[in-house]
Amino acid sequence: MPAAPRRRNIAGVTTTTAVVDTGLDRPPHRLARRIGWGSMTVLSLAVGAYAIFLVATGFRFVPASVSGNGFPTALGLRTHIAAAGLSLVAGPFQFLRPLRRRFPVAHHGIGAVYIVAALVGGTAAGLIALFTTGGTVAGVGFLAGAVAWLTCTIVALVAVKRRDFLAHQRWMIRSWAIAFGAVTLRLYLPGAMAAGFEFAQVYPYVAWLCWVPNLLVAQLFVRRARGAADF
Ligand code: HEM
């Protein structure tokens, strides 16, 4: 029987494990993954840049529909925008395998920024959620999304502390899928309004649809990789 090949895990540690052929590394999958990563990154950076723009301009340009959020202090929404925006800018680079392998220190540094930003941004999102002007269904949708985002991020953090890199990677994919809800929300909302729906009509649905399908796609993705530590 041939010896099990040696490979490096995401921490850069060389291990001897059986390599699971997921098929994800073969062309045309590789090309599809690059296109997927590129599109995801452009969209994330665009929405992250939008959040940074709001911070840099003193929150003057926060849309009226959202600036009416009834949380007792504007600090809740502002903290959310600043921290969540940072997490959206940091996130995409964590999925770059060459960065993880060749520059593990960069992966750890950017990862720490993502985790702190997600924990602060998610906590603020949870606090302001029920104060949305969009009603209870929207509020509960955002609150559930915030709790799911925090849970996935904390479980991923605990996993990496225990050096369970596979679990860490999987929970981070789930965490990122929820963070990416900031992008899908900003695709669905204008899309629905362009189709003739009113903001108030669609907002409660979008508050759920922006993150639940993302999480389901992440789950399919994680399952498809059949136990390999790299995607
Ligand atoms: C991680 C990336 C995220 C970014 C960059 C982001 C950014 C923003 C921004 C800029 C606003 C102000 C509204 C606007 O200008 O469009 C906002 C509002 C809000 N976000 Fe996020 N967000 C992110 C993720 C999330 C997540 C995962 C949740 C929870 C599911 C969430 C919940 C909320 C809530 C509750 C509001 C206030 C909505 C209202 O009052 O109607 N955000 N976010």
From TrEMBL:
Transmembrane segments: 35-59, 79-99, 111-131, 137-159, 171-190, 202-222
Keywords, ordered alphabetically: Membrane, Transmembrane, Transmembrane helix
Domain of life (superkingdom): Bacteria
Listed name of the protein: DUF2306 domain-containing protein
Pfam families (alphabetical): DUF2306 (PF10067)
Keyword Transmembrane part of the UniProt annotation: yes
Organism classification: Bacteria, Bacillati, Actinomycetota, Actinomycetes, Propionibacteriales
